[in-house]
């Protein structure tokens, strides 16, 4: 074991199969990783973390910023070789390989939550080479800061927009040059105050945007992303507005930019990097909201036939009120006994007052969550998992995140339609994951979403309410469509093309792999 004090630095090689334990007894440290002398990533840490095991050698450098830091290399694997961090085969660019060069299957839970894809970094803000700015209205002040909200020693590009600024663009010109591009471009940003930012828009296209795709990532302008901290804004074939003119699979990606639209009083946004996500692990999670008795007759048999365990968010205020509509306490226990995850959706479908609608403040909403959780604990005991919550009608804010995290919340689902990208890190989006709304989809659309999950290596969180014979009324899904979804996902899992997770299991994986901001990890 090596111990370093403030101002001291330790450098060594982390061999394939080894793990590095960084123990922070007090203070903080900067952990940098290199491959072939090239800096690939760095983290500011103030809590104990473990790195590896990896399938290839890399070098690390740990600098003690303050306090005392202990380092220990562990040569014995704590997991099978197949469970190590897999990487892309450079030869094909598509096949995940293990330490012996053989393909790694998703089956048997061997792959990590992110897939450990080799993402392509178009720009990490270590400098401003290739970065230009444009403004509408009063110009923003832009600086490259050595320290950022991501941590001490983590540089980022700081954009301060004053009152009178209509929008500011961070432009990356000629930073890609990827022929026949058929993927997504993701910008990792940090929002200091969500109430001050209307939206950010990602553009990606050919030189000069002769053809382009763009997507508007709404922040205070809607009820989708009303929280501070790290947010991931993405544009591509699965996140595109109607005006998409980029021909994916044919056109070359050359230019990309981020347009930030502040409120009237201005705003501050940080930019850390721009990434093309690699192929992650295709993952599905089927979640259920409310307390429909149709879960017993129409959901449990379909899940059992497909060999899947799902997540059920229960409204306790509806339990036992109508046997033809809602579950009884005994039926909730039946779902838990079948191995499924039971979580609290709340007492009733009363929404949080997020500034765009809703009635309950954060404290009242959280109190209802606690009440519902206590009721469910009395029914299912330790089978209750309060780490997951589906926001009632999707409404959530930073104040609600803070309040609910104090009660154990670690992963939450919103109502924004789409896929999620764990392979590049989810940021604070882990508390408002995008979802697939089953009741709005045809079987053709279900198939397309499952195929896209596999093609791009993504996370699909499926949102289900009632499952009736015909569906089509309100949030009702047709029984045939639900069975079709379970059948498709079951086939993907059995063929080793994807995995299915409960939301509690998924949360444990994502936090263990540090795919969320340090502020959430320290909770």
How would you characterize the overall build of this protein?
This protein is an alpha/beta fold and 523 residues long. Helices cover 18% and strands 35% of the residues. The chain has 8 helices and 29 strands. Strands 20, 21, 22, 23, 24, 25, 26 and 29 form an 8-stranded parallel beta sheet that branches. Strands 1, 2, 3, 4, 5 and 6 form a 6-stranded antiparallel beta sheet that branches. Helix 1 (294-306) packs parallel to helix 6 (479-494), helix 3 (362-380) runs parallel beside helix 4 and helix 5 (443-456) packs parallel to helix 6 (479-494). The longest helix has 19 residues, at 362-380. The relative contact order is 0.12.
Shape: globular
Count of beta strands = 29
Portion in beta strands = 35-45%
The radius of gyration is 23 Å
Please tally the helical runs, counting DSSP H or I stretches of 4 or more residues. 8
- Alpha-carbon distance between the two ends: 27 Å
| Percent range of helical residues | 10-25%
Structural class: alpha/beta
Global mean pLDDT? 89
* Biggest sheet record: 8 strands, parallel
- Low-confidence sequence ranges: 76-110
């Amino acid at each position: 074991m090596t111990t370093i004090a403030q101002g001291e630095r330790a450098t060594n090689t982390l061999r394939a199969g080894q793990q590095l334990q960084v123990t922070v007894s007090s203070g903080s440290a900067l952990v940098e990783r290199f491959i072939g002398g090239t800096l690939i990533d760095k983290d500011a840490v103030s809590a104990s973390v473990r790195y590896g095991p990896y399938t290839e050698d890399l070098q690390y450098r740990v600098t003690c910023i303050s306090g005392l830091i202990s380092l220990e290399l562990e040569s014995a694997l704590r997991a099978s070789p197949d469970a190590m961090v897999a990487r892309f085969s450079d030869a094909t660019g598509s096949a995940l390989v293990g330490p012996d060069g053989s393909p790694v299957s998703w089956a048997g839970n061997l792959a990590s939550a992110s897939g450990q894809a080799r993402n392509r970094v178009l720009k990490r803000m270590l400098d401003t080479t290739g970065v230009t700015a444009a403004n509408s209205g009063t110009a923003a002040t832009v600086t490259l800061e050595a320290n950022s909200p991501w941590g001490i020693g983590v540089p980022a590009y700081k954009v301060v927009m004053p009152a009178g600024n209509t929008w500011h663009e961070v432009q990356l010109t000629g930073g890609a040059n990827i022929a026949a591009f058929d993927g997504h471009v993701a910008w990792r940003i940090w929002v200091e105050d969500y109430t001050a930012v209307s939206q950010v828009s990602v553009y990606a296209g050919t030189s000069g945007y002769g053809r382009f795709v763009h997507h508007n990532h709404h922040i205070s302008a809607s009820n989708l992303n009303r929280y501070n901290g790290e947010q991931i804004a993405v544009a591509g074939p699965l996140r595109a507005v109607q005006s998409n003119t980029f021909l994916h699979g044919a056109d070359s990606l050359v230019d990309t930019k981020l347009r930030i639209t502040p409120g009237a009083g201005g705003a501050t946004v940080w930019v850390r990097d721009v990434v093309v996500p690699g192929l992650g692990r295709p993952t599905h999670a089927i979640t259920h909201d409310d307390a429909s008795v149709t879960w017993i007759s129409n959901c449990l048999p379909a899940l059992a036939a497909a060999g899947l365990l799902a997540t059920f968010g229960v409204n306790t205020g509806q339990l036992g009120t109508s046997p033809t509509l809602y579950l009884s306490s005994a039926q909730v226990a039946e779902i838990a006994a079948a191995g499924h995850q039971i979580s609290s959706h709340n007492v009733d479908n009363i929404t949080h007052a997020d500034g765009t609608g809703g009635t309950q403040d954060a404290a009242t909403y959280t109190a209802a969550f606690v009440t519902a959780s206590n009721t469910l604990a009395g029914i299912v005991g330790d089978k209750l998992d309060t780490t997951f919550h589906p926001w009632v009608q999707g409404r959530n804010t930073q104040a609600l995140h803070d309040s609910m995290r104090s009660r154990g919340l670690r992963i939450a689902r919103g109502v924004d339609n789409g896929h999620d990208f764990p392979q590049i890190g989810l940021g604070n989006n882990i508390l408002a994951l995008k979802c697939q709304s089953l009741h709005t989809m045809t079987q053709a659309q279900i198939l397309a979403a499952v195929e896209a999950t596999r093609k791009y290596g993504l996370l699909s969180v499926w949102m289900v309410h009632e499952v009736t014979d015909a569906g089509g009324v309100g949030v009702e899904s047709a029984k045939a469509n639900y069975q079709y979804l379970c059948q498709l996902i079951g086939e993907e899992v059995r063929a080793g093309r994807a995995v299915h997770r409960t939301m509690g299991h998924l949360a444990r994986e994502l936090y263990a792999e540090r795919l969320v901001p340090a502020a959430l990890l320290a909770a």
